[in-house]
Write a structure and sequence with these properties.
The complex is a heterodimer of chains A (481) and B (131). Chain A contains 17 helices and 15 strands. Chain A is an alpha/beta fold and 481 residues long. Chains A and B meet through helix 15 and helix 16 of A and helix 3 and helix 4 of B.
Chain lengths: 481, 131
């Protein structure tokens, strides 16, 4: 059996070399032939053709009876998840696929092979695991994906298909549901768990060091290029800063909005969701969220002891709340927040997928509501129905105005639409990213009460005390036209 | 003939005001945003400015503030719909920033009479009914 896999790997390697030559560039990532890979110098149409051809050739390789019957070729079918997410699927697709990529990365060894099919399913070929162990790894991946995007929805499941042979030129699969596989395996040790616990492969598989198989034992399948290696500081340090929020109704800056930032050596920085774009590891995201929470509460406490009263919002990412292993440590910190500070605290939910089911949202909000006064959710700046967000304990929404001076008239119209939708859903609204007085005026005319952005004040390392801020203050530091 | 500068990003409203005011014997100059308004203000030195508050590029409050700084004696009327949620405090703010009067949209016939009256009488005349 090992010889069979080795022979397939040789074929794949040969194919990759051929593909790299044909496309004029190496494949996206060795070991991760991806149908949505980076563009090559060829036109998109040619690329699509090449990728289709790639998939067909990979299928042909897998179709060798000696390979297909070993029980090591698995199809992780996302179809049920697509059905479950329904109309939310197109918007969620990139997030689901990215999460699937990350989870699969974690669960596969460097000798395993995977690729995404054109229909957004995943083929996994295990180098060393037997069928049972491979089934369980697939089931675990499916379970984690379901947990992340559909929560504890017991009726949701995912199909794991195992290749068992070839007939009439087609790979024959046996299907099983992830939950059934896991339930059956409960008394036995879970290979995925063993793998992740000790860092070594179960059943004699080699040590895990990520998904790459380009540097496998048999040699290199593409040129090894020198990689840019920046220190963490050079690559941008994550931190939290605080934006003043102007309450236009009361003419006071009464809230500071904690916002994640990624600060680069030249002083420039990315802010908000953009700062977190590069992060996919839920544990890393949890660490940032936890740091932000602890720092914010410490500041809040200091202000409170100095008789300053101020509302502070703290960002919390979806990934932190979505999975139990990240949610519980976060909630432990929440439990340590003194009662007298909770009424000054707002949680701002970031990176929530647009199609997150209402029940799931309700469940997550229920977890954090006891520790804060309000919960806001950051959503995309576009006209949309917000009815799915109402009635489950969410206090309001935050939208960030795109920085496009030339499109102010259109943005004003869109803002009106968003404010109307928020009003209908009974949600407060905070508009961030306002950099011109004209947009602040337009926000107020739309009925917005809470605004933030450079025009109100830059992000600061520490919030200041509550201060009065009147309209002339808005125009005080230069007139931006 | 008195000159009125109408500043509003809504062309339909500008056209309506132009027709009504021209019938009343007032010369009308139009600007669609605050930047254009400042240029025309300096070029025409109007007797009265009617300025919307919500406009792209340069909002009405800023425009009023600049005009007032440039010409302390010019008469300025701020207009605004107050938005869907009737955040009418903007009109009050406009007065705070230098507008002589503030009118809530939609502009009605009676408003036009008041504008014409206000334009002709000067600031010493009776105060028109405003918000």
């Amino acid at each position: 059996m090992l010889r069979t896999i080795a022979s397939m790997r040789r074929l794949l390697r040969r194919w990759f070399i051929g593909q790299a030559g044909a496309a004029g560039s190496p494949p996206t990532a060795a070991g991760r032939p991806d149908s949505a890979g980076k563009p090559s110098p060829a036109s998109p149409l040619e690329n699509a053709e090449q990728l289709r051809a790639l998939e067909q050739r990979l299928w042909r390789l897998l179709m060798q009876p000696a390979v297909a019957s070993t029980g090591r070729v698995h199809l992780l079918d996302l179809g049920m998840m697509r059905d479950r997410l329904g109309p939310g699927w197109p918007a969620l697709r990139p997030r689901v696929l990215a999460a699937a990529d990350a989870i699969i990365d974690r669960c596969l060894t460097r000798n395993d092979i995977r690729f995404k099919t054109a229909s957004d399913d995943f083929i996994l070929v295990f180098a060393t695991l037997d069928r049972h162990a491979a089934d369980l790894v697939c089931a675990r991946i499916a379970q984690e994906l379901l947990q992340l995007f559909l929560g504890d929805d017991r009726s949701a499941d995912m199909r794991v298909s195992t290749a068992v042979g070839v007939a009439d030129g087609q790979i024959q699969f046996e299907h099983a549901f992830a939950k059934v596989l896991l339930a059956e395996a409960r008394p036995r040790p879970d290979p995925a768990a063993v793998r992740s616990a000790d860092g070594s492969g179960a059943a004699g598989s080699p040590a895990m060091s990520g998904p790459n198989f380009h540097a496998d034992d048999g040699g290199k399948v593409r040129p090894v290029l020198r990689q840019l290696q920046l220190s963490p500081e050079d690559a941008g340090q994550f931190s939290i800063r605080y934006r003043p929020v102007w309450d236009i109704g009361k003419l006071v800056i009464s809230t500071y909005m904690g916002t994640p930032v990624r600060i680069f050596p030249d002083g420039s920085f990315l802010e908000g969701a953009a700062a977190l774009n590069s992060l996919t590891d839920p544990m890393e995201i949890l660490r940032l969220d936890a740091d932000a929470l602890v720092e914010s509460v410490e500041i809040l406490n200091g202000l409170f002891r100095n008789r300053s009263r101020l509302m502070m919002s703290v960002p919390v990412c979806f990934e932190t709340l979505a999975a139990r292993r990240t949610r519980l440590p976060f909630l432990e910190i929440c439990q340590s927040i003194p009662d007298y500070l909770r009424r000054f605290l707002i949680f701002e939910l970031l990176r929530f997928p647009p199609g997150v089911p209402t029940g799931r949202l309700n469940e997550l909000l229920h977890e954090v509501r006891p520790y804060c006064r309000w919960t806001f959710m950051r959503i995309e700046f576009k006209s949309q129905s917000l009815s799915g967000l109402s009635g489950n304990g969410l206090s309001g929404i935050t939208v960030a105005m795109p920085a496009d001076r030339s499109a102010e008239a259109r943005l004003m119209e869109e803002m009106n639409g968003i404010v109307t939708a928020a009003d209908r859903a009974g949600l407060m609204i905070c508009v961030a990213g306002l950099s011109t007085t004209s947009m602040v005026v337009a926000a107020r005319a739309s009925g917005v009460r809470l605004v933030a952005g450079n025009r109100i004040g830059p992000p600061q390392d520490r919030p200041r005390s509550m201060t009065r801020f009147d309209w002339p203050d808005l125009y005080r530091d230069g007139e931006d036209g | 003939m008195p000159t009125v500068l109408v500043v509003d990003d809504d062309p339909a409203l500008r056209l309506t005001l132009r027709r009504l005011l021209e019938k009343a014997g007032v010369e009308v100059v139009e600007a669609e945003d605050g930047q254009e308004a400042m240029r025309l203000f300096r070029a025409n030195l109007p007797d009265l400015v009617i300025c919307d508050l919500v406009m792209p590029f340069a909002d009405g409050l800023q425009t009023i503030m600049r005009m007032r700084r440039s010409s302390p004696s010019v008469k300025i009327i701020a207009i605004s719909s107050g938005g869907r949620s009737k955040a009418m405090d903007l009109l009050a703010v406009a007065r705070q920033m230098g507008a002589d009067h503030a009118l809530a949209k939609p502009i009605e016939r009676s408003h036009v009479d008041l504008i014409v009256d206000f334009c002709g009488r000067g600031s010493g005349g009776p105060t028109p009914r405003t918000l």
